[in-house]
Amino acid sequence: xxxxxxxxxxxxxxxxxxxxxxxxxxxxxxxxxxxxxxxxxxxxxxxxxxxxxxxxxxxxxxxxxxxxxxxxxxxxxxxxxxxxxxxxxxxxxxxxxxxxxxxxxxxxxxxxxxxxxxxxxxxxxxxxxxxxxxxxxxxxxxxxxxxxxxxxxxxxxxxxxxxxxxxxxxxxxxxxxxxxxxxxxxxxxxxxxxxxxxxxxxxxxxxxxxxxxxxxxxxxxxxxxxxxxxxxx
Length: 233
Known about the structure:
The chain is of the alpha+beta class and 233 residues long. The protein has six helices and ten strands, in the order βααβββββββαααβαβ. The strands form three sheets. It has a five-stranded antiparallel β-sheet with strand order 1-7-6-5-2, covered by helices on one side. A three-stranded antiparallel β-sheet has the order 8-10-9. A two-stranded antiparallel ribbon has the order 3-4. The two termini are 26 Å apart.
């Protein structure tokens, strides 16, 4: 398996380490989005994630973080959106291009992904604590028949983490699609690293990320989904 970092720039960030004094780097639309969170903790986590994402893109492209323009697109709405849902993109002043990126938060941690590889048309990352999906009824609600078969064959001690692994893969694909949970998770099969239930499956790849390889705590589960160009979506 090709290490994800060879095609996509990944970085794990502890949200509490992000300097919220850099909030001036964000656009009005991002600041407006942050005010929709009633919880100060969630508001700060959102703000920290967006600051960290701009800094990550800046390190990759050389553009100043404040010069980046958020340009989200929702394939469900078929319109540009505010930075609240849809496919996250940023316009780069250095090349007048739109950079596809992805961000996932869990607890005090955030995983960021961006790529300058023009052969990659879509990116999605997701992280969760190892037992995040371990509750009754989850498999019947979100998993396909193939995925439930894998869970039934797994040793009992491994079931919770495997279920979270499948969920994280699935979320990564849904983020790359840009639909999120507007697409029923049970329609996407990630029992193999080539997902089923997506258009042009041969152009897709799901990769599991070792938490230590990106600086996440060992109890985290992380995955990245990418789609190569060539699939009319």
